[in-house]
């Protein structure tokens, strides 16, 4: 398959090479639905199932006029498709993806949803030690701290945690429950406290194994948060396996962003992005990614590598050995101005202006009184929210690279 769209080719490669975010095959879960009536016996395809609510054009990444489908005789095809929609339609009506697998083409069909990290996530330190000295009145006169076996020193300036050694309390920087958000600090740690009483010369030692307590399900965003029921033990969305040997026809309904998140974003449904805008490396690791930062944060503040989330809606045709024989990856692209969308359709893709960031209604736009770009997509997170490239100059900057949407 030849793709003329460099953007979507890179996105396709990201899907092929992505790690645990989409869930490994070992984590996939069956839904036991069995086969169903087949709409089309000749094509494996994905389309839009609510055309009266959402204007749309579905195509392959390489051709405006080629439908998002593969013949039943296809083998080893990795098809990337774009669903073009006006931003208001999906904001208020959501999207229904209809998928079809012909009889005898797929033994199983695995479906994975698009999702991202909604908040800054990270793995906390694995060992914390506090050495304190108290006087006869049990008042702290001195204290030192060590993280992950490092040298003892002052108990401030750590990139991932804050320590109040006077009362031996520890707070992870990825835990934002104090400001009304979620705890996205993961892993376990050994907490050792040594207290020397200077008046008696006696040292007491306490040691506990503690869980940082993060909930990955609550730290995710997109349909993986709002329209999914299957998660791994760690809380990441995992693939759904459906028997397809007798053919399979079904719909996947994605909730309208206006109903699923309290903000002006469309990133909870529109997953199309421009890789060049999102190029970044890790906070400490030098691996380069062209996925949006909140889909592939590479590592946390200390350099612990993190799995990528899933950037596409994927539909995989599997054989009896659960090998992928064909795959369709879908990217939803929203259009800021409806007349631009109509021109795109009328010219069969020649006139292509989906984004109008920063422009005001009345200035090459339709209507009056507000911005053309009313609902932000993934590229707008860079251009409109951050106003530039992702920042990791200091540890605290890393938090700004995540949407932090408020989900009901």
Structure notes:
The protein has 408 residues and is an alpha+beta fold. It has helices at residues 6-17, 87-93, 216-219, 223-226, 257-260, 338-346, 378-386; strands at residues 29-30, 43-48, 57-60, 69-71, 77-86, 95-101, 108-112, 116-117, 122-123, 127-134, 140-147, 161-164, 169-172, 185-186, 188-197, 202-211, 220-221, 240-243, 248-254, 280-281, 288-289, 313-318, 324-335. It has a seven-stranded mixed β-sheet with strand order 1-18-7-22-23-5-3. Strand 12 and strand 13 form a beta hairpin. It is elongated. Mean pLDDT is 88; it is low at 1-26 and 32-38.
Indicate the percent of residues in helices.
Answer: 10-25%
Radius of gyration: 25 Å
Q: Which residues sit in consecutive blocks of at least 5 with pLDDT less than 50?
A: 1-26, 32-38
What gross morphology would you assign? elongated
Average pLDDT metric: 88
Helical element count? 7
Q: Please tally the β strands and state the result.
A: 23
**Secondary-structure element order, N to C:** HEEEEEHEEEEEEEEEEEHEHEEHEEEEHH
- N-end to C-end Cα span: 41 Å
Q: How is the largest sheet built, in terms of strand order?
A: 1-18-7-22-23-5-3
Give the helix/strand class.
Answer: alpha+beta
What percent strand?
Answer: 25-35%
Instruction: Describe the main β-sheet briefly.
Output: 7 strands, mixed
Please supply descriptive tags for the structure shown above:
single chain, 408 residues, alpha+beta, seven-stranded mixed β-sheet, four-stranded antiparallel β-sheet, disordered N terminus
């Amino acid at each position: 398959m030849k793709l003329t769209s460099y953007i979507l080719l890179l996105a396709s490669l990201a899907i092929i090479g992505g790690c645990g975010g989409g869930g490994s095959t070992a984590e996939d879960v069956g839904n036991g639905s069995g086969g169903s009536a087949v709409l089309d016996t000749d094509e494996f395809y994905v389309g839009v199932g609510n055309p009266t609510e959402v204007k749309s054009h579905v195509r392959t990444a390489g051709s405006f006029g080629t439908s998002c489908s593969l013949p039943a005789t296809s083998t080893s095809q990795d098809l990337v498709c774009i669903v073009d929609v006006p931003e208001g339609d999906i904001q208020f009506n959501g999207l229904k993806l209809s998928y079809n697998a012909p009889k005898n083409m797929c033994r199983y069909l695995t479906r994975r949803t698009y999702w991202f990290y909604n908040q800054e996530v990270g793995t906390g330190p694995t060992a914390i030690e506090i050495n304190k000295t108290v006087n006869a009145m049990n008042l702290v006169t001195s204290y030192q701290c060590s993280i992950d076996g490092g040298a003892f020193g002052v108990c401030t300036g750590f990139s991932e945690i804050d320590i109040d050694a006077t009362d031996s309390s520890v707070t992870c920087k990825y835990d934002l429950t104090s400001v009304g958000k979620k705890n996205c600090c993961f892993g376990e740690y050994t907490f050792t406290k040594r207290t020397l009483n200077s008046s008696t010369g006696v040292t007491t030692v306490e040691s506990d194994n503690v869980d940082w307590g993060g909930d990955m399900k609550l730290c995710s965003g997109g349909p993986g948060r709002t329209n999914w029921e299957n998660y791994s033990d760690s809380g990441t969305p995992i693939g759904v396996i459906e028997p397809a040997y007798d053919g399979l026809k079904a719909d996947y309904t994605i909730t309208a962003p206006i109903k699923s998140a309290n903000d002006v974003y469309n990133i909870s449904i529109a997953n199309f992005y421009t890789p060049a805008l999102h190029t970044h490396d890790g906070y400490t690791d030098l691996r380069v990614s062209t996925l949006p930062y909140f889909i592939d944060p590479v590592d946390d503040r200390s350099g612990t590598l993190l799995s990528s989330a899933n950037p596409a809606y994927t539909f995989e045709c599997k054989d009896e050995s659960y090998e992928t024989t064909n795959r369709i990856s879908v990217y939803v692209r929203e259009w800021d101005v409806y007349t631009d969308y109509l021109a795109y359709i009328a010219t069969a893709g020649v006139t292509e202006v989906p984004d109008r960031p920063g422009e005001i209604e009345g200035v090459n736009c339709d209507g009056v009184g507000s911005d053309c770009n009313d609902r932000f997509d993934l590229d707008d997170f860079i251009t409109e929210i951050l106003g530039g490239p992702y920042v990791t100059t200091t540890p605290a900057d890393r938090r700004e690279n995540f949407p932090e949407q408020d989900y009901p």
